[in-house]
Write a structure and sequence with these properties.
The chain is built from nine helices and seven strands, in the order E-H-H-H-H-H-E-H-E-E-H-E-H-E-H-E. It is an alpha/beta fold. Strands 4-3-2-1-5-6-7 form a seven-stranded mixed β-sheet, with helices on both faces. The longest helix is centred in the first third of the chain and has 17 residues. The mean pLDDT is about 95.
Length: about 220
């Protein structure tokens, strides 16, 4: 059994689910359009530049979720999946995940985006294990706006992966091969940890790093 890890945004789907969720809330009138769109765009620009403070962003994103009842959020998320996410999913991405699942590999999606936004997307790919930023919830499932633990970004992905494997009595050394597919230079810490890093639809910074390191470059979609 090998280990196959996947980033999500711009790796398995040709969009940033967190950013698009924010834009969706603006479109349906759930949040103040001018103020939210301005902050959402600023955070996204920081992410692309590699300067994003993950805690600051997650407090913004989870604080937005906390403004609404969970039942309403779930209904909106269903609409978001139908209108935004599902039309963007490409066969090349689903086929890659299925290839690892059919091979009997242990598969996980590991993303900096929060679990509320990403869990339904992981289910579409048939992946049971999702490592994502964890929102705090009340006993009846309402989102409080706080983050549980450390962010699942940068070096945090390595920490969360190691903790997940350790909970099963495993480590990376337990697998003959460990793969990680990602598009972003933000994931260089985890890409550098596995035996088989794959720069997938890489941005310019990751592409340059991958070429310098001799890592394979995979294109699943062009947009």
């Amino acid at each position: 059994m090998n280990l196959a890890l996947f980033d999500l945004d711009h790796t398995l789907i040709p969009l940033d689910s967190d950013y698009e969720w924010g834009q969706f809330l603006v479109r349906i009138g759930a949040v103040d359009a001018d103020e939210f769109a301005k902050r959402n765009a600023a955070f996204y620009a920081q992410y692309e530049a590699g300067t994003l403070d993950p805690v600051e962003y997650l407090e913004f994103a989870l604080g937005t979720l906390a403004q609404f009842p969970r039942k309403q959020l779930d209904a909106w998320h269903g609409q978001f999946m139908d209108e935004v996410v599902l039309p963007g999913i490409r066969p090349a991405a689903t086929d890659l995940v299925k290839e690892h699942l059919r091979a009997g590999d242990q598969v996980a999606i590991i993303t900096a985006t929060n679990r509320f936004v990403t869990e339904p997307i992981a289910r579409v790919f048939g992946v049971d294990t999702l490592i994502a930023a964890q929102p705090e919830t009340t006993a009846d499932g309402e989102i409080t706006g706080k983050l549980v633990g450390i962010p699942t970004s940068g070096q945090g992905k390595v920490i969360h992966m190691n903790d997940w494997l350790a909970s099963q009595g495993k480590s990376l050394a337990s697998f003959p091969r460990s793969y990680f597919y990602s598009d972003s230079q933000n994931d260089i810490p985890l890409l550098s940890t596995v035996t088989h890093p794959v720069a997938t639809n890489p941005n310019a910074l990751l592409k340059a790093h991958a070429q310098a390191q001799g890592w394979p470059i995979l294109t699943l979609f062009d947009d």
